[in-house]
Amino acid sequence: MAEPIDYFGEIEDAVIALVKNHLDHKDTYFDAPDEQVVKSDDDKLNEGHDYFFFTFPSAFPTVSAGTDVVETIWMIRIEIFTRFSTPESTWANFKAFRSDIFNLFNVRNIGRNLNRTPRVVSVLLSSEGEPIFYGEESTPSDPVFYSQAMQLSVSTHINRT
Predict the structure, then answer these.
(1) What is the distance between the alpha carbons of residues 109 and 143, in angstroms, rounded to a whole number?
(2) Could you tell me the end-to-end alpha-carbon distance of the chain, in angstroms, rounded to an integer?
(3) Does the model's pTM come out above 0.85?
């Protein structure tokens, strides 16, 4: 019997690789991408870098797309962080970082098809919440990070066996 396929793992790996390798201005954001672009590990915030991109598993609604296919939308919660320096520069840096992530997944072809990851039909990044101050004090006068949670929806078609 063949090993079962970790469909979510394939998608999450592709998201991480895409951000590390294809994000516009990635060299501005990441000096240690293996510590800054990671799965489910916000303990990395203590590593001292200025930008972070984290993925976390979320829902996966699935419907039948025919006799032999299911359509699953893998929802991945993404959290981005920009270290606070001054109110003006941090806000500008945060908006540029967020814009590059939005453009990667919603505008650029490589992100919209998740770099041709097998079974991917479409990709869409969205956020319903606004950016927040994040940190031990977590007040506008003494923030540690600007942060925002986003939802990445990756629609896939999976063949039934």
Answers:
(1) 35
(2) 12
(3) yes
How many Cβ atoms are within 10 Å of 2's Cβ, its own excluded?
5
Q: What pLDDT was estimated at residue 42?
A: 80
How many domains are there within the chain? 1
Q: Supply the pLDDT for residue 137.
A: 63
Cα 66 from Cα 74, distance rounded (Å): 19
Token code pair at residue 70: 């299911």
Phi/psi for 35 (5° steps) reads -100, -20
Mean pLDDT of 56-79: 94
Does 77 map to a domain? yes
Q: Tokens representing 1?
A: 């019997």
Is the model's pLDDT at 43 over the cut of 90?
no
What is the extent of the structural domain holding 63?
7-159
CATH number for the domain that contains residue 54? 3.30.2000.30
Average pLDDT over residues 6-30: 97
Strand partners, 78: 55, 150
